[in-house]
Amino acid sequence: MMHSNSLDNASTQSLLTVINGILDESIERKKGEIPHRVVYLLRKVVQEIERRLCIQAEHIRNQNTIIKTREEKYLSKIKALQVLVNGTNEENQMTVNLLQVVKEEKSQIEERQKLSEQNVVRLIKEKENAENMISSLKEEMEEMNRLHKQQLDQFEIKTKQMEEKLATKVKEFELHVLRSNMKIEEVETTYQQKSQLWNKKENIFHNYMNSQQLYVKGLNISSRSIKSDMYAFQMKWRDEMSNLGSNLKCLVDAADNYHKVLAENQKLFNEVQELRGNIRVYCRVRPFLPGQDKQSTTIDYIGESGELLISNPLKQGKDGQRMFKFNKVFSSFASQADVFSDTQPLIRSVLDGFNVCIFAYGQTGSGKTYTMSGPSTSKKDWGVNYRALNDLFDISLNRRNIFSYEVGVQMVEIYNEQVRDLLSNKVAQKRLGIWSTSQPNGLVLPDASLYPVKSTSDVLDLMEIGLANRAVGATALNERSSRSHSILTVHVRGVDVKTGSISRGCLHLVDLAGSERVERSEATGDRLKEAQHINKSLSALGDVIFALAQKNAHVPYRNSKLTQVLQSSLGGQAKTLMFVQINPDVESYSETISTLKFAERVSGVELGAARSNKDGKDIKELLEQVSSLKDTISRKDMEIEQLQVTKDKDKPPSSAVDNHGSIMLR
Ligand SMILES: Nc1ncnc2c1ncn2[C@@H]1O[C@H](COP(=O)(O)OP(=O)(O)OP(=O)(O)O)[C@@H](O)[C@H]1O
């Protein structure tokens, strides 16, 4: 057994020697090529293997020594036992047992030997592994050498390239330096030129500065003069401000007086109207119609002051002539606008709270509808109705800051002494009741449709409906002659924006039925009845006016529906205007004379002073207005004083105000 162990050790030793030899040889051969680290590692591996082999060899040697000692001990024991075998059988048996123990021990030793052998085999394997590792390391080394060489080759190529590039760069740099030198030379030349130029400019600048200094000195002098001018201007401004203050005060006073003036204006205006008389008669002559003989006219002369001379072509001399005098006579050439211009002031009165009645009187076909409504709804042709309402809206718009107006319209006709609502769309109408004294809202016909209107176009629409509803029929005198009185009533309610006082005005625009005498219209039956009613109501109208003229205690308003409806506008509180329409033709002479006689009597009537329907609290309200206006004046005075103080504060610091209010320069 010892022999085999020593053999293994020897082979391990020899192998190690071989490895070392190979290493030494490769190191020798590749000196300078193998990295020191690999060599170092290889040596470390070999040393480790040697160390382990030594330990194993030492271990095996110890085992061999122990086994040897034990073998000797057992051999001596066997000898002693053999001695003893020779002794007794018991001893033999013991010896056999001992031998058995020895055998067991021997088998143990053999097992251990086996283990040692296994260890040797393992070590041999490890050695093989080490060899494999060494060979792989060698391969790696070779690969690394190869790579190293490749890198070296690449480095060499790169180095060559870099050297070439460097050479080119050096050449370029040299060229650049050459150019730079040239540029420097150029710049130096330019610099010299420029510095010469700058020197010149410096000289110019110095000269300019000198002139500027002189200019600034001049400016200083003019600035001082401007300052003094400014102070003078400030003084002037101050005076103007104080003037402005006083003007402002005047304006405030004027504003204060505005309401008073307006009220006075209204008062004066109405006084003028009163002086003219509260019933006015304007006569209008209709032009000849196409086809009529223009030579045979009854109109001889129309004077500027309302004179009208009518002549009877059948009677010669003074007997055949009759002079009438009215407030105004419009010839057949007068336009719709001319006719309305003298009516206009009455419309203002309605807005001031007066009742006004404008009616057209005349025989059939004399132009009543033409004057009141106009031949068409185009603005040029508008009659008194449209123009009056248009004016009413215009004036109310102008006064919107002082009064707020509400306007409502009713339209009725009186036919055969029955009042019909012309704005109602009901076919069967109930009879409309008439209030002898108008209701608080000013309505005499409370059941008739009342439409609020805001513009002339609203009125136009309503009147179109009304005219379409008006009863018309044929007569021997005029095909379109109306045999009913049409009454358009405009109710105006004005509220004083500031005081809240209310005024109510009412405007009646009446297109009367034809005034011709019954026998002349050749009417019979129904037509006769209609004519009689018409005559009755017109004569009732005359009676009322004459009763008022004579200041009778009893005024017969109730004799006809017409006078009942117009009652509020025919009394002493109202203003009345009558258009007397006449035909110029000779055939109409007697009708013309009777019409003009009626009108003449009417125009001689004085209805007395008209009265406005204003609230009784007016005086109190006016006093309130006066006190509020006084407040406004004192407020404005304070504002003016404050303005004065602010203005004084804003004065420049370099000036002061002396005791007399003038500005002194410091
Ligand atoms: N100033 C005028 N200029 C031109 N044409 C007029 C003028 N006045 C009336 N006419 C014409 O005379 C004719 C009769 O006028 P209008 O119908 O107004 O009369 P009227 O008095 O209203 O008659 P009626 O009593 O039948 O209602 C109409 O054709 C009208 O166009």
Automatic annotation (TrEMBL):
Residues 278-605 form the Kinesin motor domain. Gene3D superfamilies: Kinesin motor domain. One of its GO terms (cellular component) is microtubule. Residues 646-666 are annotated as: Disordered. GO terms for molecular function: ATP binding; microtubule binding; microtubule motor activity. ATP binds at G362, Q363, T364, G365, S366, G367, K368, T369. Keywords: ATP-binding, Coiled coil, Microtubule, Motor protein, Nucleotide-binding. It comes from the Eukaryota. Residues 99-172 form a coiled coil. One of its GO terms (biological process) is microtubule-based movement. Transmembrane segments: none annotated. Belongs to the TRAFAC class myosin-kinesin ATPase superfamily. Kinesin family. KIN-14 subfamily. This is Kinesin motor domain-containing protein.
